[in-house]
């Protein structure tokens, strides 16, 4: 399909794929660290105001306004303040941060330095998921370069401001992407989320004020000061400034990470020549998860929606982490949900009873239905189990300490709402209607 | 007499590594170095032997039980000696849409192991998302990602593992 999507100048992904894009030299040639120089001449409060004005929203999943989050850090606290970078990217469908870390880590490091100066932070920990071996190597090399170049260390580009930055790798636990679990993990403990309030901005790492920002969020910060907050805000919608990275996966011709305008629709992402280039021959879209596996699934008639926070909220789903998963008409929705449910059962930390007991229960019921052993009451049972973890709607008011419970229940509610007939067919026919090809015959393994 | 945990070279690597790790945290927060310290131990020994856990705990000034509590929470730490090659196959949604379930079945048959089993050479595990959804199907072998796999590509990779 010829391109109809609004063209944007890429900000985050501009250098990806270019030779040596991950080096300090390459970054500087592209104007890197000029925004930091500019902000070092500003008052910290003015930096936070600019970020507020830019309408930059967190890119980790919740979409909280970044400047507002920064402004919650108490200015008069006698305790040290910390910055923790959330690079624990683990939600199925989400794979954008690793591209930043692999191809342009200095962009994130510049964002770190700007944020640290604005917040009065002298120590930053970059927490990457344990499986990110190669991204961690690239990021560590960039940190080492930044120390050597006087960007980190006793002074920041000559300014009398000490900033240290350390890389920490997780060890395989999705829950550590939840900001308070991440802090527990950084403190050397198992990743059990904490009750909020108090929020990390006031009581965070080691009991001190801490800002937790996603990799993409911090990588977006330099652009706010290169372009100016107003110009950055204008790139997006009234409530969400800038561009965003979306991850396209599943049955489309060209999966990948694309930087898009907030006005780009799901349909454009899937079909446009610039992005997904449509479906494989003979296939049609059946369903799309728009924001990582926890985001409620949409049907094929709901794709004309902009991929930004507010528009997706109207559809009772969410932009989340930007992970768009496309399922074609040869895909079994029961098996798809079973796969998603298994993830949350595996990754539940076990702290809260509804999540600890409910997530494996969902998985067992789904397996039973998929394998043709389902009974008439199982769908209602599944719905009840999901409701006991988190009712639907509204989004975000579950019965657990952290949002993993919501994340586990939302897919169940939405799959049952939109594709109940497939669940019923499994039970009625005592088999999977897709036989031994629940994923169709896509890929080279069929 | 029990064998020492480390050779002299390994001891040097551990001592230097643990000192570096501890230096990243406030002096009264040494225990925060637990994850990097366990990773260091595993990089040296290939797994987390009980004596090693006790040693890490001593350096970080916590109880050995605390070290075990953390080590057992995270799936990347090996509390038993794994096969020489740990193969983690992602079977989550995006990978399954590209044939990951069949890839796992192929590996099970080829290696003579069920997911979750191990022999001296291989540990085969079914794992959750590896953040390679756009280059599915994916697996990792000892933390190295292999993406956009086909049967032929996987065969070539396995053939190189001695």
Automatic annotation (TrEMBL), chain A:
InterPro entries: ComplexI_51kDa_subunit, NADH-UbQ_OxRdtase_51kDa_CS, NADH-UbQ_OxRdtase_suF, Nuo51_FMN-bd, Nuo51_FMN-bd_sf, Nuop51_4Fe4S-bd, Nuop51_4Fe4S-bd_sf, SLBB_dom
Any one Gene Ontology molecular-function term assigned to this protein's record: quinone binding
Source superkingdom: Bacteria
Enzyme class: translocase
Cofactor(s) needed by this chain: [4Fe-4S] cluster; FMN
Catalyzed reactions: a quinone + NADH + 5 H(+)(in) = a quinol + NAD(+) + 4 H(+)(out)
PROSITE patterns assigned to the protein according to its UniProt record, in alphabetical order: COMPLEX1_51K_1 (PS00644), COMPLEX1_51K_2 (PS00645)
One GO BP annotation of this record: cellular respiration
Keywords assigned: 4Fe-4S, Flavoprotein, FMN, Iron, Iron-sulfur, Metal-binding, NAD, Quinone, Translocase, Ubiquinone
Domain NADH-ubiquinone oxidoreductase 51kDa subunit iron-sulphur binding: 334-379
Enzyme nomenclature, EC number: 7.1.1.-
Family according to the record: Belongs to the complex I 51 kDa subunit family.
NCBIfam families: nuoF_fam (TIGR01959), PRK13596.1 (NF010120)
Function: NDH-1 shuttles electrons from NADH, via FMN and iron-sulfur (Fe-S) centers, to quinones in the respiratory chain.
The protein, known as: NADH-quinone oxidoreductase subunit F
Organism name: Pseudomyxococcus hansupus
From TrEMBL, chain B:
One annotated GO molecular function: metal ion binding
UniProt keyword annotations, A-Z: 2Fe-2S, Iron, Iron-sulfur, Metal-binding, Ubiquinone
Top-level lineage group: Bacteria
Residues given in the record as [2Fe-2S] cluster binding sites: 90, 95, 129, 133
Gene3D superfamilies in UniProt: Glutaredoxin, NADH-quinone oxidoreductase subunit E
Stored InterPro entries: NuoE-like, NuoE_dom, NuoE_N, Thioredoxin-like_sf
Cofactor note: Binds 1 [2Fe-2S] cluster.
Entry cofactors: [2Fe-2S] cluster
One Pfam family linked to the record: 2Fe-2S_thioredx
Family indicated by similarity: Belongs to the complex I 24 kDa subunit family.
Name of the protein described by the UniProt record: NADH-ubiquinone oxidoreductase chain E
Annotated organism of origin: Pseudomyxococcus hansupus
């Amino acid at each position: 399909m010829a391109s109809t999507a609004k063209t944007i100048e890429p900000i985050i992904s501009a250098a990806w794929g270019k030779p040596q894009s991950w080096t300090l030299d390459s970054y500087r040639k592209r104007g890197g660290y000029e925004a930091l120089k500019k902000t070092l001449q500003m008052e910290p409060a003015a930096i936070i105001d600019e970020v507020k004005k830019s309408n930059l929203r967190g890119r980790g999943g919740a979409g909280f306004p970044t400047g507002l989050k920064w402004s919650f850090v108490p200015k008069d606290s006698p305790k040290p303040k910390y910055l923790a970078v959330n690079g624990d990217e683990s939600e199925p469908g989400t794979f954008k941060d690793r591209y930043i870390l692999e191809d342009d880590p200095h962009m994130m490091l510049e964002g770190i330095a700007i944020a640290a100066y604005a917040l009065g932070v002298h120590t930053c920990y970059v927490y990457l998921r344990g499986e990110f071996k190669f991204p961690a190597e690239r990021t560590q090399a960039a940190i080492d370069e930044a120390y050597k170049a006087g960007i980190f260390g006793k002074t920041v580009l000559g300014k009398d401001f000490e900033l240290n930055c350390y890389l920490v790798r997780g060890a395989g636990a999705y829950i550590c992407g939840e900001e308070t679990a991440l802090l527990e993990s950084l403190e050397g403990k198992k990743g059990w989320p904490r009750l909020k309030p108090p929020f990390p901005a006031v009581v965070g790492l080691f009991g001190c004020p801490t800002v937790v920002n996603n990799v993409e969020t911090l990588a977006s910060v330099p652009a706010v000061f290169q372009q100016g907050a107003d110009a950055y805000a204008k790139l997006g919608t009234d409530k969400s400034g800038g561009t965003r990275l979306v991850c396209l996966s599943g049955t489309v011709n060209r999966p990948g990470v694309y930087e898009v305008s907030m006005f780009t629709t799901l349909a454009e992402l899937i079909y446009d020549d610039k992005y997904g280039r449509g479906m494989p021959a003979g296939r049609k879209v059946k369903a799309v998860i728009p924001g990582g596996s926890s985001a409620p699934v949409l049907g094929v008639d709901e794709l004309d929606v902009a991929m930004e926070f507010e528009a997706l909220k109207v559809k009772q789903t969410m932009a989340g982490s930007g992970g768009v998963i496309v399922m074609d008409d040869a895909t079994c929705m029961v098996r798809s949900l079973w796969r998603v449910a298994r993830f949350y059962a595996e990754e539940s930390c076990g702290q809260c009873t509804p999540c600890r007991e409910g997530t494996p229960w969902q998985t067992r019921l789904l397996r039973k239905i998929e394998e043709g052993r389902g009974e008439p009451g199982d769908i209602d049972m599944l719905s009840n189990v999901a409701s006991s973890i988190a009712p639907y709607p509204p989004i975000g008011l579950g019965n657990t300490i952290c949002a993993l419970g919501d994340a586990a229940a939302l897919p169940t509610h939405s799959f049952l709402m939109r594709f109940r007939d497939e669940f019923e067919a499994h039970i009625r026919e005592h088999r999977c209607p897709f036989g031994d090809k629940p994923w169709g015959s896509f890929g080279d393994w069929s | 007499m029990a064998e020492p945990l480390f050779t002299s070279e390994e001891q040097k690597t551990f001592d230097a590594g643990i000192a570096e790790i501890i230096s990243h945290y406030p002096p009264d927060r040494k225990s925060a170095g637990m994850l990097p310290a366990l990773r260091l131990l595993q990089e040296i020994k290939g797994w987390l032997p009980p004596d090693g856990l006790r040693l890490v705990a001593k350096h970080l000034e916590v109880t050995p039980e605390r070290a075990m509590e953390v080590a057992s929470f995270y799936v990347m730490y090996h509390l038993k000696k794994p096969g020489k090659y740990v193969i983690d196959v992602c079977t989550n949604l995006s990978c399954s849409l590209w044939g990951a379930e069949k890839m796992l079945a192929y590996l099970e048959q080829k290696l003579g192991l069920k997911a979750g089993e191990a022999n001296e050479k291989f540990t085969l595990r079914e794992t959750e998302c590896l953040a390679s959804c756009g280059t599915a199907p994916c697996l990792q072998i000892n933390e190295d990602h292999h993406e956009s796999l086909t049967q032929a590509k996987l065969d070539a990779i396995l053939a190189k593992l001695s």
